[in-house]
């Protein structure tokens, strides 16, 4: 019975690991769908804003309240989109370029869009087991010469 129990335990462990990875993929997919929905809503608001600006230009009516409302809604949606994109990047192990905001692979040294050198702390992207402590306490006197 010992071998059978070991096999069963290993099988359960494998199933749990596959389930966790599948859950992560599903979470990323849901975030991408939410991102697409927000982008669609932003585009819809832009279209409405364009119509309002056009109507204001061809008529003598003042639509400044409508424009300001649409502009603030677009701003809120953009902030929401940025949050969703951050979550996608975190779950996909991506880093954001400080210069242009494009998400790049963690292994990238330069941004794929603007070419800017990606500035990130090694702690965020390197597992702690692989990190080297460069403090003086970890060197012998002979190493410092």
DSSP helix count? 3
Strand content: under 5%
Strand line-up of the largest beta sheet: 1-2
Distance between the termini: 61 Å
User: Total domains, how many?
Assistant: 2
Structural class: mainly alpha
Stretches with pLDDT under 50, minimum 5 residues: 122-145
Into which percent range does the helicity of residues fall? 55-70%
Overall residue-averaged pLDDT value: 77
Query: Radius of gyration from the CA trace?
Result: 25 Å
* Number of strand elements: 2
* Topology pattern, helix = H, strand = E: HHEEH
Tertiary shape: elongated
The biggest beta sheet is recorded as: 2 strands, antiparallel
Please explain how this structure is put together:
By secondary structure, the chain is mainly alpha-helical. The chain has two domains: 1-92; 97-145, no CATH class. Helix content is 61%, strand content 4%. It is built from three helices and two strands; from the N terminus they run ααββα. It has helices at residues 2-58, 64-91, 122-125; strands at 94-96, 103-105. The protein has a two-stranded antiparallel ribbon with strand order 1-2. A hairpin with a 6-residue loop joins β1 (94-96) and β2. α1 packs antiparallel against α2. It is elongated and about 85 Å long. The N and C termini lie far apart (61 Å). 5% of the residues are buried. Residues 122-145 have low confidence and may be disordered.
Keywords:
single chain, 145 residues, mainly alpha, 2 domains, two-stranded antiparallel ribbon, 3 helices, 2 strands, disordered C terminus
Short description:
With 145 residues, this protein is mostly helical.
């Amino acid at each position: 019975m010992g071998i059978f129990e070991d096999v069963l335990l290993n099988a359960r462990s494998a199933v749990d690991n596959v389930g966790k990875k599948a859950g992560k993929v599903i979470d990323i997919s849901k975030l991408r769908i939410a991102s697409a929905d927000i982008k669609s809503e932003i585009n819809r608001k832009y279209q409405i804003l364009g119509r309002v600006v056009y109507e204001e230009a061809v008529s003598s009516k003042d639509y400044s309240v409508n424009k300001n409302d649409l502009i603030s809604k677009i701003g809120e949606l953009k902030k929401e989109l940025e949050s969703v994109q951050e979550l996608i990047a975190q779950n996909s192990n991506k880093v954001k370029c400080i210069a242009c905001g494009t998400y790049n692979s963690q292994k990238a040294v330069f941004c794929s869009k603007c070419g800017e050198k990606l500035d990130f702390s090694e702690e965020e992207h390197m597992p702690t087991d692989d990190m080297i402590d460069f403090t003086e306490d970890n060197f012998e006197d002979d190493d410092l010469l």
